[in-house]
Design brief:
alpha+beta; histidine kinase; transferase; Beta-Lactamase; nucleotide-binding; Heat Shock Protein 90; HATPase_dom; HisK_dim/P_sf
């Protein structure tokens, strides 16, 4: 009996130590930023952490003891999530796929990992992690690589194209008097117009790969945006759109920028917004709103429209050179804008949903006029 009595406290201490370790690891799993859910060998939910319950939108207590089928029938699971879960389940079972990527209804990217097999002793572990930031970094790196490649291409061919165009334009000008006498002046006008258009495309092509270094001057944000609104007012009226300018405590805010380049960026965004008013949303009163606000050492310029919006595919390729949804568009305007803003030490971002319009955000460093 004495041996048993002596062993009892040791066993108790070992049990308590084991429980502490288990509680510690359960606490870690509970507070991971990744969603974790575990089904046992019988297909019954054995564990779900706080993040996974939040992602599913279902209270943890109501999931206890559920099978996957019962979970799919839960009233808290949206139709979108139900369809995604079924698709992932099929790919895992029939194609033995253990890693899945998906984009949710809010545009966020998720990496889903399945762990099962002998090492899990029949259990089935699912982890879900938000990889939106990594995708954004990957997209930015991809964008930079494409722009670098575009620069090499443009440097090698642009001048070779412009030189013969210049020669052709000169000879057409020389032939113009003879063609006029033949009643062919309209042909000359069209040829010259098309040559000039080709030159403009080449100019955009060159700028998209390497815009000239900014020639900075001080300008107030208020005057810059007022000028842009004035320049686009007539086109907006013709399209039945309204441009509304909001200024939030930026009267004394100045930015040191290449005025021509930054004006080109803002004009491009406003004209894109005007184009977004055409088509399916033409029956809605078009409205473009421009906000400017100062946040510490930055100025935020937002340009929002109530047009048709963009889907995820368009958003993911929006700043890529030559990507366009416009008939006859070059696909260079936004890639040029991206590079110009970045060369000014700023950033440009976009939010959009189909049917709910689009908002662009330009962020630029500011400088107090009083300090100059």
């Amino acid at each position: 009996m004495s041996d048993v009595q002596q062993a009892g406290p040791k066993d108790m201490r070992a049990l308590q130590s084991s429980q502490l370790v288990r509680n510690k690891y359960e606490n870690i799993l509970e507070n991971l930023d990744s969603g974790i859910i575990l089904f046992d060998s019988e297909g019954v939910l054995a564990f779900v952490n706080v993040q996974m319950a939040r992602l599913l939108g279902v209270p943890r207590t109501s999931m206890a003891g559920c099978t996957l089928t019962q979970l799919l029938r839960h009233p808290g699971i949206t139709r979108f999530k139900r369809k995604k879960i079924i698709r992932i389940f099929r790919e895992t079972v029939f194609h033995r796929k253990k890693n899945h990527e998906l984009v949710d209804e809010y545009g966020r990217s998720w990496l889903i990992t399945m762990t099962y097999g002998d090492q899990m002793e029949g259990d089935f572990l699912i982890s879900v992690k938000d990889v939106s930031e990594f995708k954004q970094i990957e997209q930015t790196a991809y964008q930079n690589d494409k722009l670098a490649m575009l620069g090499k291409i443009s440097a090698s061919i642009a001048h070779e194209i412009r030189n013969p165009l210049t020669s052709i334009r000169g000879f057409i000008q020389l032939l113009r008097p003879h063609l006029i006498t033949m009643g062919k002046d309209e042909y000359v006008r069209i040829i010259l117009m098309e040559i000039d258009r080709a030159n403009d495309i080449i100019y955009e092509f060159l700028n998209s790969s390497k815009p000239s270094a900014p020639q900075t001057t001080m300008i107030s944000v208020l005057s810059l945006l007022k000028e842009v609104a004035l320049l686009t007012e007539s086109e907006a009226l013709m399209k039945g759109c309204q441009i509304v300018l909001h200024m939030d405590e930026v009267d004394e805010t100045a930015i040191s920028v290449d005025v021509k380049q930054i004006k080109q960026v803002i004009l491009n965004l406003v004209k894109n917004a005007l184009d977004a008013m055409d088509g399916d949303h033409s029956h809605i009163q078009g409205r473009i709103e421009i906000w400017a606000s100062r946040v510490e050492k930055q100025v935020h310029i937002r340009i929002a429209d109530n047009g048709k919006g963009m889907d995820h595919h368009t958003l993911n390729h929006l700043f890529n050179p030559f990507f366009t949804t416009k008939e006859g568009g070059t696909g260079l305007g936004l890639s040029v804008s991206y590079r110009i803003v970045r060369n000014h030490g700023g950033s440009i971002a976009v939010e959009s949903q189909v049917g709910n319009g689009t908002t662009f955000m330009i962020t630029l460093p500011v400088m107090d006029v009083a300090q100059e």
